Amino acid sequence: MPTPFADPDVKAAFDRFPDPERGGLMALREMIFETAIETPEAGTIEETLKWGQPSYLTPVTKSGSTVRLGVPKTGGLAMYTHCQTTLISDFKTLFPVDFTFDGNRGVVFESGQTTFDDRLRLLIKSALTYHLK
Q: How far apart are CA 22 and CA 114, in angstroms?
């Protein structure tokens, strides 16, 4: 069962995504919430909007760096992290040819993709605990 939306503005943002991307973005959203539950040191996750995109923060512990979901101008869908962190470069070092990267800020997926490699949980966990390093 999908995690309910606590913020109607976030739900509205998901509703505005194009149909081919919405399903994948919802699947990534669930993966973020599931990974947060598996990562108690991250604490409670807050879902909000940053730059108009669904964003996931750790406001209580402040352990993490923001994870955002969106649709790149080039098409498809993406999971973004803060570009001034080492999150994407570290992930790219581990999996250099297994994913498509948007510079040092995100991982991009094909339009219509709704299933994702469990290795993404490593990126999510790293983001949720980034400041604990």
A: 9
The DSSP 8-state label assigned to residue 132 in this structure reads G
Other residues' Cβ atoms within 10 Å of the Cβ of residue 24:
24
Other C-beta atoms lying within 10 Å of the C-beta of residue 100: 12
pTM for the structure as a whole:
0.96
Encoded tokens for 115: 């299933």
Whose tokens are 């999996």? That residue is: 95
DSSP secondary structure letters along 35-101: HHHT-GGG-S-EEEEETTEEEEE-TTT-----EEEE--TTSSEEEEE-TTSSHHHHHHHHSTTTSEE
CA angle 111, 46, 66 (to 5 degrees): 60
pLDDT digits (tens, 9 = 90+) for 35-88: 999 999 999 999 999 999 999 999 999 999 999 999 999 899 999 999 999 999
pLDDT of residue 118: 94
